[in-house]
Amino acid sequence: MGMTETAPRARRSDATRAAILRAARERFAADGYERATIRAIAADAHIDPSMVMRYYGSKEGLFAAAAEFDLRLPDLAAVPPDRLGETLVRHFLARWEGDETLAALLRAASTNPGAAERMRLLFADQLAAAVAGFGTDPATTARRAGLVASQTLGLAFTRYIVRLPPVVEMAPEDLVEWIAPTLQRYLTGRP
């Protein structure tokens, strides 16, 4: 068992993973998270479904590995400082309402470590960069972004995953009115 036997096996494994991810991206995009199945993804990749489970552990793990996520955050440096909280609440409501992949990732993150890590990185990298972009004190940027994430993810969880009736029934404008001041304080208030 030298390098020559290990290298082809590793290349075969990489090719199988790539085929699974390619098939998963296409299937999740075409069918959505809920309707996509491991069996259909495996068929698209021309492999046995057990191989998908071997590499990714679950549908949630596969989704977390396959999905491309971009929060598409606005340039906060271009937003009037007193409108930052409002801007972010409106933005996140629009993203959650219009993109089932973010809700699927949040659902998966609650039970799958790979999806949780993907969500952590998504919010840590993209949100922290947006918060840093409007000139916060670098010493508090990560904390401010983390607090904004806690509020927006909590809203998404209660509205789109748990579907808590009082939160589901609120009009987007009412949510903006209630939540924007909290985000504003997280972004610009004194620690």
From TrEMBL:
Molecular function GO terms recorded: DNA-binding transcription factor activity; transcription cis-regulatory region binding
Leader peptide range in chain numbering: none
InterPro entries assigned: Homeodomain-like_sf (IPR009057), HTH-type_TetR-like_transc_reg (IPR050109), HTH_TetR (IPR001647), Tet_transcr_reg_TetR-rel_C_sf (IPR036271), TetR_C_16 (IPR041678)
Every HTH tetR-type domain range: 14-74
DNA-binding region: 37-56
Keywords, alphabetical: DNA-binding
Family annotation (Pfam families): TetR_C_16 (PF17920), TetR_N (PF00440)
Domain of life: Bacteria
Record-annotated membrane-spanning stretches: none
Protein name as catalogued: TetR family transcriptional regulator
Provenance organism: Micromonospora terminaliae
